[in-house]
Prior knowledge:
8-stranded mixed β-sheet
Amino acid sequence: MPILIAFCALLVIAALILITAYICFRRVFYFKNPGPIRDGEYDYPVGRIYEPYREEMKDWQLRLGKLAYRAFEIKSFDGLRLCARYYECKPGAPIELMFHGYQGNSIRDLSGGVFRAFKLQHNVLLIDHRAGGASEGRVITFGINEHRDCLLWIDLARKTFGEDVKLILTGVSMGAATVMIASGCDLPENVRYILADCGYSTAKDIIKKVIKEMKLPANILYPFVRLGALIFGKFDLEETSPLEAVKRSRTPILFIHGDDDDYVPCEMSRELYEVCVSEKRFVISPGAGHGLAYSKNKEPYLEALREFDEKYV
């Protein structure tokens, strides 16, 4: 009888662990993608910090909807259909591969980035992450699988636009984490530099920060978050990180971060900058909230990119 009781107790504990891990998985990684923003429509990030910029964001999205583009698709390593749009400013110009943020999409998060790139005479491949926009998928992996997708988009750009095409990897928030993780891989010489805008140091750190802000015990819950990713998302949240990848990077990286970012702390970019072993620069955008470094301080943002263009492109 004691053995049976102990066995039943273990089953209950195991069930509670699995249930907790599943709830964490659904809360953090599972995303029911609403689909792409259609031409003529627009969307805004959630939060009061974006209200002063809503008209500008709306204008960018509506203007982008009027531009001609070429649609591209690839298949991910795990069989998802991933989508992107190519916008050309100037034939033969460098191409920015742009990656958006967590639970976002390319049109909402990066329309302004397209017009910013055009100011620099860059063409743009505007990419929808897995589980975002027009791409398939329901699981967001904080850059783990997304960086593998990034490598496939680089291959597509080289095959489509020529082996000598000049590429720039651009990411905002989770997109920045994605391109930073990719920087630790053996990138082709086509990738001239990386723009990492308000990226986090590790998925673990940003997830624990959010858990703490919810007034929950981060050290207790985080192992369940990671377990949920392993069991139900089939990926390891700690397989790699931006922090580890930039220690191996051979690609120049421009780190940009708003010092009023209360979602991904500016100190995370400072930490990334300090351990990065490739050529680098760190630009702080005064008074800018999360993802608003360009909107808040356009000329310093552009000037930093012009400097990288002149040096590496």
